[in-house]
């Protein structure tokens, strides 16, 4: 059964701010890629995807993991592929991390999806809507409070 995990951002966590959440997303991608998972990072649009690709280049060399944007890189890609609404991953991946504002339609291609519940009320409401859509699609759901490494 497919699994959707929602990471809850608390008011007092570093992830409350955009830069903190972005760093956490990069950390999660690296964490799962280091475990051998093929990760797809779903962004809002092309510029958002390019922004995340740049963030992956800004990590310490000791934790760098190869990544590519959809349509770029080697035929079977790297452990981390970065796409956006309207783009299709280049090949099968097990795990998707969603940072797109209100998208779930891409998720049916993945055994596991990670999403986020921000603090800001409008964004929180959109995450609730995504939660309902995952539930209606038959995903097993769980929530986890973010624990920063």
Question: Could you characterize what this model shows?
Answer:
With 149 residues, this protein is α/β, with parallel strands linked by helices. It has a single domain, classed as Rossmann fold, CATH 3.40.50. It contains three helices and seven strands, in the order βαβαββββαβ. The protein has a seven-stranded parallel sheet, sandwiched between helices. It is globular. The two termini are 29 Å apart.
Chain-wise SSE layout:
Layout lengths: L2 E6 L9 H17 L4 E5 L2 H12 L9 E3 L10 E5 L10 E4 L13 E6 L3 H16 L3 E6 L4
Mean pLDDT: 88
Number of domains: 1
Main pleated-sheet profile: 7 strands, parallel
Shape category: globular
Structural class: alpha/beta
SSE order: EHEHEEEEHE
CATH architecture: 3-Layer(aba) Sandwich
What is the number of beta strands?
A: 7
Trace the largest sheet across and list its strands.
3-4-2-5-6-1-7
Distance between the termini: 29 Å
How much β-strand is present in the residues? 15-25%
Low-confidence stretches: none
Distinct helical segment count = 3
* Proportion of residues in helical segments: 25-40%
Short characterization:
It holds the Pfam family DNA_pol3_chi. The chain is α/β, with parallel strands linked by helices.
């Amino acid at each position: 059964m497919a699994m959707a995990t929602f990471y809850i951002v608390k008011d007092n966590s570093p992830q409350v701010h955009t830069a903190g959440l972005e760093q956490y997303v990069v950390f999660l991608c690296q964490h799962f890629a280091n475990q051998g998972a093929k990760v797809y990072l779903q962004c809002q649009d092309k510029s958002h995807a390019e922004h995340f690709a740049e963030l992956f280049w800004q990590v310490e060399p000791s934790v760098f993991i190869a990544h590519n944007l959809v349509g770029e890189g080697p035929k079977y890609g790297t452990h981390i592929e970065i796409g956006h609404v309207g783009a299709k991953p280049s090949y099968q991946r097990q795990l998707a991390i969603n940072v797109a504002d209100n998208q779930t339609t891409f998720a049916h291609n993945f055994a596991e999806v990670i999403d986020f519940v921000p603090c800001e009320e409008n964004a929180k409401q959109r995450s609730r809507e995504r939660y309902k859509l995952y539930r209606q699609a038959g995903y097993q759901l769980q929530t986890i409070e973010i624990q920063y490494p």
